[in-house]
Amino acid sequence: MPTILHLDTSARSLDKSRTSRNSISRMLADSFREQWTKKMPTTKVIYRDLAEKPPGFIDEAWIAAAFTPEEQRTAEQNTLISLSDELIDEVTEADMILLSTPMYNYGMPATLKAWFDQVIRVNKTFSFDLGRGDYPLQPTLSGKTMVLMTSCGEFGFHVGGIREKMNHLGPHIEVASQYLGVDKFYEIRCEYQEFGDQRHIDSLNNAHTDITNLIKRLT
Ligand SMILES: Cc1cc2nc3c(=O)[nH]c(=O)nc-3n(C[C@H](O)[C@H](O)[C@H](O)COP(=O)(O)O)c2cc1C
Predict the structure, then answer these.
(1) Number of domains in the chain
(2) What does the pLDDT look like over 100-144, one tens digit per residue?
(3) CATH number of the domain bearing residue 187
(4) Distance CA 122, CA 125 (A)
(5) What quaternary arrangement does the UniProt entry report (predicted)?
């Protein structure tokens, strides 16, 4: 039975009875999940809404706890990293991470960054060994697929596009996700939201076509 960890992060919600102001990234992930589970009905879905319940920011005490060997941690330190443990268990269980996110200020929302800071953890999702020379970090998990749904107000963030160099969303997530065991990465992006013109309608339609094609490819 495949397991999907579905994470939504947009500050905007998705209300299917509404015709406007819906989160586009949430809508794309919802469509992927609906089509996927129709085709693969035994899929287990773990769901988190990071906008509704944002993970806390890590601090000095959190870092000290994470770097203390498990058998030496105090009860207080175990409590400090208990959410991190829970979030990591969800990642570990997942075969696929279905992540939806808006572009905020050319990168990811703070809630999603807080999630990454909680889940990428030494001796849990990666090992650190200076014996490896210039690349001491190595992921300990593997074989996961990430399907990323993004939405942005402007356009041209693709490779070779006019805003490629301003895109700190998909490329950042792809790099960070390696330390969660992601070795297959797919991004479906909707652009032009702020223009609201035909280009936006076309971009949204293309994203929906991409979803159908990706599901065919992965199932
Ligand atoms: C706080 C904030 C910052 C944003 N920053 C950018 C940006 O840097 N580049 C961009 O293209 N769009 C930006 N946008 C537009 C959003 O990416 C766009 O509205 C997108 O559709 C939001 O995703 P959602 O529909 O899933 O909520 C921003 C929107 C907000 C609210």
Answers:
(1) 1
(2) 999 999 999 999 999 999 999 999 999 999 999 999 999 999 999
(3) 3.40.50.360
(4) 6
(5) Homodimer.
